[in-house]
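Backbones bend. Our protein:
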Amino acid sequence: MPWWKPWKPILVLASEARVYLTRWSLLPVNRWCRVYLHRITGPDEGRDLHDHPWWGIFGVLRGSYEQEISPDGDPKNARLDEVRWVNTMRPRRNYHRITQLRRAAVWTIGFCWIRRPREWGFWVPGKGHVDRHSYRLSERAVLERPLDVPTDD
């Protein structure tokens, strides 16, 4: 594999109006961990909180953001939290949604352990955890589209 391949974006999320997240992998794919660099340029689209099914720690390299976070997913139990330095992800314990950026772009670096206890998804009132594939087919989903990431293969 060419040395530059891990530095190409592996994920670009956009709504109809704008790109709001770009992710790069800083290590080649392996069985143990992932290291991601994120450029966040807007709040998460949609109204429902989502989780991350892996253990991870994310350091803020530049900027800060505000997130709505709930320990059980229920928006009634959510609180606002400003993330300036570090954000941790714990499976089945953190449902969140970025609500506001404190500058035009926020850069984070994330270290993730890849063992997934389940597929990531969204907390839907009255239903609980709904996996991302089912959620994106539902009427609650925002028309989010991963953009094609160009490759030079």
The radius of gyration is 15 Å.
